[in-house]
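Our consortium's second objective concerns turning raw sequence data into structural hypotheses that experimental partners can test. To show how far this objective has progressed, the report includes one record in full. It was chosen at random from the queue rather than selected for favorable results. The single chain below, 92 residues long, was entered without modification.
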Amino acid sequence: MAINSITASTEVTLGILPGFIFINTSDTLAQVMATGYLNGQSISPSGYILPISGFSNLMMAIVSTSDSGVVNLVVNIDGSNNVNLVAPAAIP
């Protein structure tokens, strides 16, 4: 896995959720969507001290992948505390 950076939107740096995070990676979409992809990772606050501790289910991730370009995914923390990126739910 090669995550180059994870940064947060201004709203997230201020503790306002829901919010966006931005992930720059050289991984494929399949690798990015693997269970626990974000385990052990942290958000670079770009000079801010984050009032939140890590990731939240209230975050949307804009992710740059090596094979699919830029994709929108949702942060999902499952019952085993794995931090995953999943496709957004379809709106009926």
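The partners drew two points from this record. Residues 3-86 form one domain. The chain has one domain: 3-86. Both points have been shared with the crystallography group to help prioritize constructs.
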